[in-house]
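User: Could you check the structure of this?
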Amino acid sequence: MRPDSVRSQIQDVRARYAETYAIRAGIQAIPGIGGSLDTLLAGGASKIQMRRLESYVEILQSRLSVIEEIAADLDSEGFSDFILSTIDQAVHTRSVEKRQRLAQVVCRQTTLGFSWDEAEGAARLLASLEEMHLSVLREAVNAPIASGPYEGHRLVTLEKADPAGASSNGVNLRNLFFSHDNHVLELIFSDLVSRGLLRDEGVGRLSTKSMTVFIATDLANWLWKWISLPEEVLNAEAD
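Assistant: Sure, the predicted structure tokens are below.
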């Protein structure tokens, strides 16, 4: 299937989403709270979400315009469900970066044709992350290979000095994100550990405290392949 056919299908799905959104907004106009909901949904909130939808479609069109080969089955229900789910995620985030990365998931699936379950899983995991999570994750998967006690691992750390040598090998994110409160960073790391994207390497090491030294997991590296933007891929290859 030609790329212009893909764009046409996405436009069709986009129109269906917009129609569905209007219907859902009408259904929510129920007695008691209906007036307030209707004002909100028909006013600022819906306008914001429609702007996000337009932004996402523009990004998709730009990315798909350079695609030469289509591997995914675009006539399947999986394609329609997948696109609708990414659109829904796109209109519910104010982050342009997340919309760009969602579009990258669509492009990867369109060109490489993985299972729809895998593509949807990558999109869902991405949807659960905020920009700060993505910034930390980018540092973790691209950190330099460590030596010494952590040899062979890519480390990120929240410690300025570490007896086991992590601070000299890993990327110190307290220094990198110095404008963020320490508690915010700790919460971000805790979120990433709970999602299985980072592993706490301080646990079980006598000279290192827990929740201070981390490595990206296989899941993190898998997700990063799905959501890496083209310039990030080029930078990684250059390194």
